[in-house]
Design goal:
single chain, alpha/beta, globular
Length: 247
Amino acid sequence: MHTLSQSAHPNILITVCARGGSKGVPGKNIKPILGKPLIAHTINTAQLFAKNHQADIILSTDDDNIQAVAADYGLDTDYRRPAELATDQAGKVGVIRHAWQYAEATLNKQYDYVLDLDVASPLRTQKDLELALKKIQSTPQAIILFSVNEAAHNPYFTIVEEADHGTVKLSKRLDQPILGRQAAPRAYDLNGAFYYYSRAFLDGAYTSVTLDGQSTIYVMPHICFDIDTPLDFAMMEFVLEKKLFEF
């Protein structure tokens, strides 16, 4: 159970993580979308939230071009992500923890939460961030919160995995068979839009965000997806240009 985070006005560090070596969409983080680099949309979101909560923002990147573009949009930093945390194999939690440790040492502050805003998943609102903050503050057993959407497919009903001898089996089963989708337990997709890491999580040796009994979720009531492929990028641009989501 965490204690600092119960404050009505928690100290928050916002992390914006943008590695330079994107393979799915080369140069993704600074690729223009709706008239400005992709990362700028997340920087704008971070700046507004920071203003409302007196929060600090730190950029975590290993790339000179990303650092320069971020500075153009008001996010200037001396921090540099270490090379060992800038590989395909480096986990996001390690990246967040390193930036948090740097910020606390440099700014001489203790943060109750780190709010990580993923550059590749910008379809989130200030209302999402505010409601999610209230959710984790009111769930004392949870040391991390992540954003989700209702799953398009359910492991109790429509997801199968390989079994023996070339057969498949339902991914999850209950004692009684599920005869209709609505009768299945609710399941959720992590959409990567944002995470709240509590101090208790970052102080610990945790490496995964999905902790049994210690995680909670914020269910987004609107469309949200991240960009991994050129098709995703085109779809994101279409959603924004056609105002299918009020950015």
